[in-house]
Amino acid sequence: MVVVNQYQVEVRGDAGADNVRARILLIGEGGNRSALGRIHFHDTGTQLPGDSFENNVVDMHVPMDAFAGILALLQHDKPIKIGFYSGFGVLRTGEWEPVGEGQER
Fold first, then answer.
1. Hey, where are the domains in the chain?
2. Digit-coded pLDDT (tens) for 62-71
């Protein structure tokens, strides 16, 4: 798993030929701003392509319903890591989170 340092969001009015409604590009650290992964959001109910890992870049395909939750994770948690295991892209928090974190006391 590698740490994500920055991200960029792209939202489309039309899913287009590639059937992608939105995309989040995940960037690592360093001067070259190398891409670590792309999360492709497809209209709910459409057939999702399989995740892949090429040239050290993870491509994940998820339904559009997951967009708000994934964006919130990127906005509010740190560190965030991305990796590729058993044929699937994995995005996760980098540390164990305490139970009840974020709850008002």
1. 2-93
2. 999 999 999 9
